[in-house]
Amino acid sequence: MALLALITLTYLCYTYAAFVPPRMHYSRIDASPVPSIGIPDDVQQSWSMYSPYFAAGTYEAPPDGCLVDQVFVPDYNQIQRHGARFPTSGAATRIKAALSKLQSVTDFTDSLLEFVEDYTYDLGQDNLVPFGASQSYEAGRVAFERYSWILKGQEPFVRASSGSRVVDSASNWTAGFAAASAHRYNPVVSVILSEAGNDTLDDNMCPAAGDSDPETNAWLATFAPPMTARLNAGAVGANLTDTDTYNLLTLCPFDTVAKERPGDFCAVYEALDAGSAFMYSGDLDKYYGTGYGQPLGPVQGVGYINELLARLTGTAVQDQTQTNSTLDSDPATFPLNRTFYADFSHDNQMAAIFAAMGLLRQSAPLNATNPDPSRTWRNEKMLPFSGRMVVERLSCDGQTHVRVLVNDALMPLEFCGSGDGLCTLDAFVGSQSYARNNGNGDWEQCFE
C-alpha cells in the first residue's frame, strides 16, 4: 500500500527569503521503511536523475586516528536533493503531447503497445510523490543514527530552497530525524531561500548561462531513431518523433515512483533496451547544463561553496555571487556555531556545486555521441532523487581534516590531498580558490 501523501507544508508568506518560526505545520508521513517499487535495481539506476536514491558506495568510518572533530565548529554539513516527484509542468506537457499521438492510433500492430488504448495519464506536476516523501523521511532517520552523537544537545540547522518539493523534502527529513531520536531532537526548517532572489540552493541567477540542449539533442539523434522506428511500426499513423520517444520513456520512472509499482511504460522501456542510452542522456544533461561542460555552470555553485567554507572555518561568509548577505551575516539565519547543518536543493544546483568544488572531474569532456564507459560523471550515482553530499570535519592526530562523501561514496579529493579522500582543512580551503575568487570573473559573465 502506498504511504500516505505528505500534506503540503504551510508556512508564512515570503518574498525574498523567510525566517520560519519554530512551530511548523505539516503531516508527517508513515514511519515505515521506504517501500519497494518492484523494479530491478539495474533498471532503476538507469533512470539517471529520475532514479530512486541508492548508495553509490559503502559508508566508511573515519580512518584510525581520526574522529569527528569535537571542537565547537561544524562537524557535519549535508546538501540533499528533494525526493522523487511528479514531472515538472514542462515535462508533463511534452509527455501528454507524445501520448496524444500514440493514443490517436486505433490499431496497434505490436502487442507491446496494446495497453496504450486503456492507459490513463493521471500524474500531478512538480510536487513530491508519497514515495519521495518517504525517501526524505528515511534520510533523516539515517542521518540521526549515523551522526547523532556529534549534536551535543543542539538541533540541526536546516535550510531549503523555496520550491514546494524542496521544502516538503526538508520537512520530511526533519520528521524522520525527530522520530529516530524519539523526539529528543525536533529540528525545523529554519530558513527558506526564495528562488526569486539570492539563493545558493537553486540555479536561478545566471541568465547568460547556456543549456545542455545541443549535446542531449545530438545524443537523442544517435540512439533514438531505431526506437522511434519500432514504435511507429507498431502504432501506424502515430508519427512519433525521437523527442516523443524520449518523453514516453520517462513515463517508466515517473509512473513507477508515483504509484509504487512498475509503470505500464516500463515494458516498453525494457523492450527497447533503453537503459544505457537513457542513462547517458542524463549524464549529458547535467554535465552540459550546470556542470563542467557549461562555461557558466560551476560558477553557479560558488556561493554555496563559500558558505561551506565559512561553516568549516567558523568565519564570516566571503562571497560576491549568489549569497544573500543579509541572511548570511545574521547569526539567526546563518549560524556558525552549530555542529550539524542540512540544506535541501535541486539536482541542477548540486551539479554546479560539485563542479565548483572539483568533484568527479572528467579527464576529457563527455562526448555527445560516443559514451566513455569509464567516465566518472554518472548522474545516477551523483544526483538520484534524494541524492546527497556530506562534508565531514575530522580531527586526525591533532590536525583538522575534511572528507567528502556523495551518496556514501568517499570522494578522492585529489585536488587537495593524496587522493585517499582525506585533506587537511587548510589544504581543502586552499583548493577552493575558484570559489574564494568569486568564479575568477565568470560571475560577471552571467549578466553580459
TrEMBL record:
- S-S pairs: 66-396, 206-446, 252-266, 416-423
Q: Which domain of life is it from?
A: Eukaryota
Give the signal sequence positions. Answer: 1-17
GO cellular component terms attached to this protein's record: extracellular region
As for subcellular location, the record says:
Secreted
Main subcellular location of this protein, as a coarse class: secreted
Pfam families attached to this UniProt entry = His_Phos_2 (PF00328)
Catalytic activity line of the entry: 1D-myo-inositol 1,2,5,6-tetrakisphosphate + H2O = 1D-myo-inositol 1,2,6-trisphosphate + phosphate; 1D-myo-inositol 1,2,4,5,6-pentakisphosphate + H2O = 1D-myo-inositol 1,2,5,6-tetrakisphosphate + phosphate; 1D-myo-inositol 1,2,6-trisphosphate + H2O = 1D-myo-inositol 1,2-bisphosphate + phosphate; 1D-myo-inositol hexakisphosphate + H2O = 1D-myo-inositol 1,2,4,5,6-pentakisphosphate + phosphate
Q: Which CDD domains match?
A: HP_HAP_like
Q: What are the protein's GO molecular function terms?
A: acid phosphatase activity; inositol hexakisphosphate 3-phosphatase activity
Could you list this entry's UniProt keywords, alphabetically sorted: Disulfide bond, Glycoprotein, Hydrolase, Secreted, Signal
Active-site positions on this chain: 82, 347
Q: How does it assemble?
A: Monomer.
Its recorded name reads Phytase A
Q: Which organism is it from?
A: Lentinus tigrinus ALCF2SS1-6
